[in-house]
């Protein structure tokens, strides 16, 4: 193992699978940076099992091998990508519940100067991707993290057809009214760019 291995955590919540697909692309992007260890984790579910519908059960099954995120994963990471579906223009309660466990880390300043980025998915094109990403950044600033987006040197941000996600604030996808429109190739490439960028900036910050 390289001496100065960089650690990147991709932590997400996904109910119908779209954010999970973006998470995989973000992780691939981070992994493409040399000597980078990537952990992919999902946050714990708070919807009681007896309320899961068939679509949700199917996704839970697909994601069953992805470990549940802990506070140790945050402490381990040099850079962190947070992925959440949009819920009325904000992050999901599941992701909020995870972030709300960081009090102990906050007290110690343990997350200060770690690099962070955010990705999301909405059903509708103008349904709040940007508000979700920006409001998700607010607690990250409290934690002292160095929050990054995606600059327009990523030319795929200019794409408009087919309908595309991705913005200067972070990676995203539009899943349609039934949440069954998977992230497009453009969305996935932008997500990779976010992962790569988090890793590259983390390397600069840590000097690893
Ligand atoms: C309670 C609730 C609130 C939602 N709020 C929004 C919203 O504000 N805007 C939007 O376009 N989609 C909204 N959606 C749809 C999801 O954000 C969308 O289907 C997303 O792609 C799901 O991601 P996932 O497949 O990773 O679970 C909402 C869904 C639920 C269940």
General description of the model:
By secondary structure, the protein is an alpha/beta fold. It has a single domain (6-206), classed as Rossmann fold (3-Layer(aba) Sandwich). Helix content is 38%, strand content 17%. The protein has seven helices and six strands; from the N terminus they run E-H-E-H-H-E-H-H-E-H-E-E-H. The chain has helices spanning 18-31, 54-62, 71-76, 93-99, 103-108, 129-142, 185-206, and strands spanning 6-12, 36-42, 79-85, 115-122, 146-147, 171-174. Strands 1, 2, 3, 4, 5 and 6 form a six-stranded parallel beta sheet that branches. Strand 1, helix 1 and strand 2 form a beta-alpha-beta unit. Helix 1 crosses helix 7. It is globular, with a radius of gyration of 16 Å. The relative contact order is 0.21. The mean pLDDT is 97. The structure holds flavin mononucleotide. Flavin mononucleotide (FMN) is lined by residues 14-19, 85-89, 121-124, 127-128, 175, 179.
Uncertain segments are: none
Distance N to C terminus: 13 Å
Which compounds are bound in this model? flavin mononucleotide
Q: Would you give the CATH topology?
A: Rossmann fold
CATH superfamily: Flavodoxin domain
Mean pLDDT: 97
Strand % is 15-25%
What structural class do helix, strand and pairing data support? alpha/beta
Overall form: globular
CATH architecture: 3-Layer(aba) Sandwich
What is the number of helices?
7
CATH class: Alpha Beta
Count of domains: 1
Helix content: 25-40%
Order of helices and strands: EHEHHEHHEHEEH
Count all strands and give the number. Answer: 6
- Describe the sheet with the most strands: 6 strands, parallel
